[in-house]
Design a protein that fits this description.
The chain is of the alpha/beta class and about 120 residues long. The chain is built from 5 helices and 5 strands. About 10% of the residues are buried.
């Protein structure tokens, strides 16, 4: 794991209520997807112990084994909603969908859910 990701992991503090909800969903047997504008450079390591089934995030372009600094896909706003809709179509149908997000940026994605919670 790159040194910067390890340092970030040590500093990261999850809000107790968010961690509790993830555990609650996992105990119910729910499929957990995280859709984030965060980068694929660090999110997989940060989420590795949280039981996440699907990760949709902003991707960095790579050429010749090196990150170019260019975005390959920015998972925010309408693009996040598009990716979540595609995941639901590919893995669903679901009786209910819970969405947790920030307003106003995540509202398009949250419109796909039966339960919408602003955090």
């Amino acid at each position: 794991m790159p040194q910067a990701v390890a340092a970030l992991q040590k500093q990261l503090r999850w809000l107790d209520r968010i961690r509790e909800r993830l555990v609650w969903h996992k105990e119910r047997g729910d499929t957990i997807a995280v859709a984030s504008g965060g980068l694929d450079l660090y999110l997989p390591a940060i989420l590795q112990d949280l039981g996440v089934d699907h990760l949709l995030c902003t991707e960095m372009a790579v050429a010749d084994g090196r990150v170019t600094g260019l975005l390959k896909g920015n998972c925010v706003r309408q693009e996040k909603a598009r990716r979540v809709a595609a995941l639901i179509a590919a893995t669903g149908p679901y009786d209910e969908i819970w969405a947790y997000g920030n307003a106003p940026h995540d509202l398009p994605m949250m419109e796909l859910a039966t339960h919408k919670i602003v955090v």
